[in-house]
Amino acid sequence: MSQSEFEVTNPATGDVIAHVPDQGRADARQAIERANAAFASWSTTTAYQRAAILRRAWQLMQERKQDLANLMTREQGKPLKTAAIEVQYGADFLLWFSEEAKRQYGETIPSARADQRFIVQHHPVGVVAAITPWNYPVSMITRKIAPALAAGCTVVLKPAEATPLCAVEIFKIMQEAGMPDGVLNLITASNPVPIGEEFCTNPLVRKITFTGSTAVGRKLSADAAPHLKRVSMELGGHAPFIVFADADPVHAAKGAALIKFLNTGQACICPNRIYVHRSIEKAFLKTFTERVERLAVGNGLDDGINIGPLVNRAAVEKVSRQVEDARSKGAEVLCGGGELEGKGRGGHFYLPTVLSNVSPDMIIYREETFGPVAAVVPFDDNDDIVSMANDTNYGLAAYVYTRDLSTAMRTFEQLQFGIVGINDINPTSAAAPFGGMKDSGLGREGAREGLNEYLETKLGGFSI
Ligand code: ADP
């Protein structure tokens, strides 16, 4: 086992807050072997036994909500209140899949032969290797491990190098809840590359589940393909937010201000292009800009903070580049437009920014922002707007504001996105399937579909 460690820093201050083991490929291999050894017994426990452990973990996570939220704010940066909401959301997956574990129903299928019976059962796929990102350091983990464990799989998890501490705490909770040794295994590493290579090539791993950037997801899928491993991929997004002429511009602006700046804009479902019909653009921008100007930026541990830091310096530079490019091509900066001065020193802060008059020739129109910059694009023609919204390789989330039922239904059906919020900015829940089309990924998390990702179908043909 390697003995070295790496630092975990607070993105609001730059302070080192902890050290965790810096593991390598040999550690990953051993963890996979442990998970494989534990599979025989874990996969044959009853669904009721697995459900009981997950339910205890749900209870423990709720009891530790404040401590976990505090840790999350220190390692990831989001304001304390939002961190507590995420812990609750993360815990929801433990409860949902503790219930869903008991519903792995099979079926019997009539045969054309009188002497034959078909029976279909679902079995756990085997050892699962999971890789998670830093933006939601609790819920992105429970969303994978809860269904995998409920299905009867064993797991090796590698959390993001920026946020391993929440993972360590989740693992303590799972252990206290009664998870047997070897069923759930943690690998912390400053360099994800060799770990990903081991996950994708080790024959004992039957399934790779990943949340992160499209570029890395593509690489992992390619590496896993020759070994015919199953993959689930939750990748980037470039969400359109469409406000039709008949919508209430104030209501839509309030919704847009909440969802755009969620997690400092660092969520794959954050709107990246806000299309507003020109007839209501002025009213929309007035409320929207007022709301955004009110957002308080700072250390998420302080009272009243709405916007925390970005994850690192590179994220600040990416956002600055997008804003400067848009400004140079004619976008108007209605608020923000730069880094936080003074009290932001040491942290990676960018002011919440509204850009109006954004057009398709700007980088921000095409590239995922992952930061606190809202790009507002006026439009005139309802007939063109869906094709403009679909004109991206991404297909994760989309939002539509309208009071017309036909427009709502038609747009919902035409948008090539896996998740569509209709007059609603929060179409996510442990009970609902989350996932994208096109370059936004493969598979779904949450809901019944989330469990299916970890199950094999087995057919029995019985001659009687
Ligand atoms: P982001 O750009 O949002 O940080 P990444 O896709 O780089 O997203 O990171 C998401 C997760 O993928 C993290 O856990 C990171 O360590 C991991 N990761 C990044 N590159 C690789 C790789 N080449 N192989 C395996 N995992 C990787």
Written account of the structure:
The chain has 464 residues and is of the alpha/beta class. The chain folds into two domains: 5-235 and 440-463, Aldehyde Dehydrogenase, Chain A, domain 1; 239-429, 3-Layer(aba) Sandwich (Aldehyde Dehydrogenase, Chain A, domain 2), CATH 3.40.309. The chain is 40% helix and 20% strand. The chain has 15 helices and 18 strands. It has helices at 25-42, 47-63, 65-76, 80-100, 139-151, 164-176, 192-201, 214-224, 249-260, 281-293, 313-328, 363-366, 382-390, 405-414, 447-452; strands at residues 5-9, 16-21, 107-109, 116-124, 127-131, 154-158, 184-186, 205-211, 230-234, 239-243, 271-277, 332-335, 353-356, 373-379, 397-401, 419-422, 441-442, 455-463. It has a seven-stranded mixed beta sheet with strand order 12-13-14-11-10-15-16, sandwiched between helices. Strand 1 (5-9) and strand 2 form a beta hairpin. The longest helix has 21 residues, at 80-100. The radius of gyration is 23 Å and the shape is globular. It starts with a strand and ends with a strand. The mean pLDDT is 97.
Give the structure's gist in a few sentences:
With 464 residues, the protein is of the alpha/beta class. It contains 15 helices and 18 strands.
